[in-house]
Every structure is written in structure tokens, then in C-alpha cells.
Input
Amino acid sequence: MLKNLRTKVLLGPTLVVVWLAPWNLNAADFKREVVYQIITDRFFDGNTANNDPPQSSGLFDPSKTNWQAYWGGDLAGIQQKLSYLAGMGVTAIWISPPVDNENVNIGGSSIGAPYHGYQGRDFKRIEEHFGDSSNSWTAFDNLVTAAHGQGIKVIVDFAPNHSNNNNNGEFGAFYDNGSLLGNYTSDTNGYYHHNPNIGDFNDRYQDQYYTLSNLSDFNQENSTVDAYLKNAAQVFQQHKVDGFRIDAIKHATWGWLYSFVNSIYTNADTFTFGEWIADTTSDPLYHDLYKFANHSGFSALDFPLYHAIDDVFARDNGFGEIDGVLAQEAVNFQQANDLVTFIDNHDRQRFLSINNNQNRLHEALAFLLTCRGVPVIYYGTEQYLHNDTNNGNDPFNRPMMTGFDTSTTAYKLIQKLAALRKANAAIPDGTIAQRWITNDVYIYERAFAGSVVLVAINKNETSATPIGGLFTALPAGTYSDYLGGLLGGFSITVKNGGGNNPVVDFSLPAHTVAVWRFQPGKPATPVLASVGPDVAQPGVQVTLAGSFSGTNTVKFGTMVATVVSSNSKQIVAKVPSLANGNYNVTVWDSSSHVSNSVPFTVLGAKLIPVTFTVNNAAPTTFGDYIFLTGSAVELGNWSTTWDGAVGPMLPPNYPNWFLNVSVPAGQTIEFKFIKIAGNGSVTWENGANHKYAVPASGTGFVNVDWQN
Output
């Protein structure tokens, strides 16, 4: 998601046959993975033949001094460094958008090139600078095959919000596997929204329908655009990707995104997370974010936790800020362990550009890799890579990778903690609880099904802190530092305290991180951590994560599901043929021991985006909103609450309100519109329920009057 070329914006019952292949059997559950984010052009030049391809010649700078030019990194370069990544414990790579990007220099006498990948022109071909001059899939396929051979999954960055610039270059032109579909300036088919740039990023209508910094904004309610974007994602799935990072989901049409991610999960077992920038839990649209994540099947990049990590470790705020964000998000997000966490990325200053202190970087990395969520390491962090020009802001946070040293402390730290994430279920699946906290010291505990990891961090540079009165779920015994003293850790002794066990007092030295862990044997009873995705129609395969043994039966409510595969950590099952609604998923072992339950939403069918408009709705004042509610779980099952009903709707032509909503294909739904006032009171429209026959495919539109 780019402000422009030069600057990045700062800011989840039809039976379907599901394609599944051995390489991504458990791709929908990423909690055990360590993800490495790569700006392809800035990582490694593995094929010099594609540096200056004929269709976009002149956009390459061999001197690597023009930060807006291509510098030569490519898919072959990533492939050549897979052993380096695997040795660090990386189990997934997130690569910048590899699709064919615009070919025209928009930098005038200088070079202005889409080296970052966010100026797409053909979403079904590979960029020639990253692959070959034929825009073929060869280099991409080679990378994916080699990555899977090293046990590394592949996540593709995908940008369905826009094509390329609307005011220069190729003027938004986009292609379907080489055939021109249209452009922004002569948009006779309505493929784009033609609105100004977003001026208020807290305005729901502007966020979804205005233009993001001159990037031609797709109209996903257009059936051609809808099909094009979904088909393009499916092409990547056919080329065996394991996940998608979806760019700028805050700025695509929210209702359409439900159908988009549903299409992804229907096609294949795939982890999907999106970029929705809500900087803190007090952000005006934070509530919209977690409502979206809880109902859509999307996970999200955890921007509130990123800002807390940045404040605490790089800017020296107290640990209470991190603890507060973790506590708040645990309440708000249905599957907080699926949130994707990071300490910096391609849109933010690198950590060391804010605070060039390797102790603090190591502490932040240790926290990231042991905290709840799916951790992402930005390329070069393990090599202490940073360029502080303009305080390290874009594009200077995207330097060329300068080395591949496997002996740095950061490399070894990631290696060790990636192994712990794989081995100990408390890290991917567990709860997180604060055990001790001051401004400079944070001791927290992860626990799941008897597995326990206790982490202690002292970020003070000069002073030790005496630790007394510390309790833990670790059983009585002596525990060595899992990191082997890499960050100054040591052994502790735990006494028996009946479950909440006291730790013998110790002193935690300055800039120290220690990790102590316990792993039990097989559980006596199955324990369920999550289901991913947690919303899907019958026939879709989902991944259950947890701690299991023996032969297991999966139930959605009381109905038994077909189990596709099973091991001690994950079960893949098909959603059974149930009426749409909310169900509890449980796992039963052969002795009829039953696990805890996890909520799951069964959809009525594959989702279709439909735009609902209600004219002359009930009068509203500031703080009042119109919502949609109806007969299907996709419409809230007649809920009248903010989180249960669909909305809020959008009033650019007040008193008419509209909203794009994903509803089950081929089914007749009943619905009404309601006003939820600022004080929570509800006003229903009068009259009979509205009815609508949802199309079997494509997109739909409903236009009715409010019934007085």
C-alpha cells in the first residue's frame, strides 16, 4: 500500500471439492511458523539476466544509489539463500508482490520504478525483473518447489485494492494474462472508483471508496473486477502458495473482502492475513478491525502491539504499555494467537534506526518470538541492517541485503526460539499471563495443555532487578536457560506450591533475557487451541490446532466431521453439512474424552458480494448508524447489536445508506434495516421483511426504501 511510488502510507450448504496438496496440508494454521518478510528487489540478485528487461528497460540502477529504481534482487536470489533462511529457523517467507508491475518510468529524468511490487498491471503474470522477460511462472515455481523442499512455506503479498497510478505511468491499466481489460482514464466499464484521495483515514466511506494516494482504486462490486481478483488469487494457489498477506484491507471494500477470503479458503487450505492500520486500541476504527477479523476468516497484522513494542523497547516506555495491549486484544479478538506480529517492516523505520542498540533489538526479538501471535522478521534484522538517511523512513528502510552471516547473536537467537516455537505448544497455542512487571522488567508465562514457557526480560542497560515473590506454572524443579546464556540467562529453582509454584528469589541482570520451559508427555484428554479458518461453508477443509493423541473424532455441534489427516498437533477436517449458524467444535478421543470447545461459524454457501441500499432511512443524529440484519448467520441472525448486526452502513448520499455485504450464493434471504443510536437503543423499520434471491455467482445489488 503506497502513498505514491516514493512513499508508503503510515498509517476473516453447497458441498465443494477442495484442492489440497501435501506441501501445505496445515497451511491454514501458521502459529508454529516463523515468517521472514522479504522485499524481493532488495534481497539478493540471483539472475543478472533479468536486471534490465526489454519491456521495462531503464528502470534498473546497478550503482544502487537511486532508491526508487530496481536494484536486481529477484526470485532466483531468494531461492539461492533458502538454506541460510532454513538454518535460522525460518519456516515461511513473505515475499513482496511478485505480479507484473507497470513498465513506465514515472520518475521523469530520474528513475521511478515499482521495485516494491505495489503497482500491479497484470495479476496473473510474474514481474519480469523478478523472473524473466516472458513474465512466465518459471522462477516463481522454482522458488516455491525449492522452499517446500527446505520445509519453508511461501506467502505472497497481494494487493486487491488498486492497480497502478491514476495520474501518470500506465494510468491504472490492468491486464488479464496479457489481455488489456481497461484503465482509469477511459473507464467505460466501471472498473474503478473515481473519487479523490483519502483525506480522513477515520472515515469509513473514504477508507473504502476514495483513492489511496493516486493508486487507481478497484471497484470490487463490478462483477468483472470481482472475478478477476479472485481468479488471480486462485492462480497463485494453483502455483502452490501457502498463504496471502493482503495489502490495504482497510481501504478495499470491507464487505467484498469477506467473499474474497472465503473464495481463497474454498479453493485451498491457505493462511490469510491483512494490513489494517489501527495504531492503538484507542484508534477510532479499532472496533471495526476486530469485528472484521472475528467474522471474516481473516487474521490481521497486529499494529497496536507493534506500536507498543516500538515504544517500550526502542523508545524506553514502560512494559505496562505492552501488557495493556495484550490484555485488551485478548478480550477483543476471537483468535488473538493468529494475529501477525512484528517489530518493524517495509512501511516503518527499522528498529535500529530508532534506537541503534543491539541489546534492545535482541530483547524485542526475544519478546516477539515468545509472545502470542505469528512472528514476522523483516529481512536483514538478523544482520543488523539499517540505513538512517531521513531517520530511516521509506525508502531508506529498504536497503540492499549486505551479508548472510550465520554467527550473529540475532541469527542464533531467532534460530533457537524458532525451534522452541515448533517444539513447545505453549508458544503457538498457549495463553499469555503477566507474572512480574515494572517499567524495565517483564516476566510473562505461556501455557497450554501442561506445556509452560516462562520468559524474563530486563531492558535496563545498567541495573539489575531483584525478583522475589514470583510464581509460575512450571512444576517444581531446576530449569536451565533455554537460550544457553545467549542473552545472559541462567537457571532458576521452582518449589512446589500446589500448581501456582513459587520461584526461588533471584536477581535479573541488566539487558538480560532468560527463557525456561517445560514439556509434558501426551495429554490424557485432547486440548483444542483453534480452528482455522473459523468461518466457512460445508465441504471446506479447516485445520484444528492443539494437543492430541491416538484416534480422534471432530464434531461441529453434535455432527461428526470427516477427518482428512491427523497428528499430535493438528487435525485437518471438512466442515460437515450443517445449516448455517454458530457451532462449537470439539475433539473426542477413542476413550470418549472430550476437549474444550472453540466457536465456529458455518456459512450457508460460498459467499457472494451484494450491495444493499436503503433510501430515506430513519433520521439520525451524530453517533447514530443504520445497520442491516437478517435471517442468515451472514446477516447476523437478526442481531440488534453493533457486533452482531452488519454495518454500520455508509451515508455518502444521506438519508440514503448503503453497504457491500457478503451473503450465501443461491439462497433467498430475508432482512431489515435498523437504527442503532449512540446510546445503544434500536429502532426497526416497519413492514414485512425484505426478501432477496442471492445470485449463484458474480455480484448483486439491492435497492429498497425504508419502511415507515
Observations:
- DSSP finds 13 helices and 42 strands in the chain.
- The mean pLDDT is 95.
